[in-house]
Design a protein that fits this description.
This protein has five helices and no strands. By secondary structure, the chain is an all-alpha fold. 47% of the residues lie in helices and 0% in strands. The N and C termini lie far apart (37 Å). The chain has one domain (2-105). The protein is globular and about 35 Å long.
Length: 112
Amino acid sequence: MIQQASVDVDRWIPKRWDEVAGNQELVEHYQDILRDFVEEGEGGMNTMVLGKSRTGKTSTTKLFVKCLLCQQLDSDTLNPCGGVCDYCKANPRLWGLSGLEVFSLLGSERPA
């Protein structure tokens, strides 16, 4: 029964940028950071995400983190590889993590 509930929740969580409904400003902000990260190989950032409850802030941020940690990020679409790289194979879902846990995963450099 618990597994069924997590599958239902996963259905609504975006796994690609074109699946994010609303939050276009946040998506564009995250994509700008990712472009810089791809081009320069590193990036420093501080981002505070504020908004009404249940508007997709956490889901969008988790997609952003997945993109940062993906070892084969698509440089054109900025989408994660979808389970091709070692990181995405080992961590198919970040969705159970809280916001604090998500940001503690981020270091100053992209995993090799």
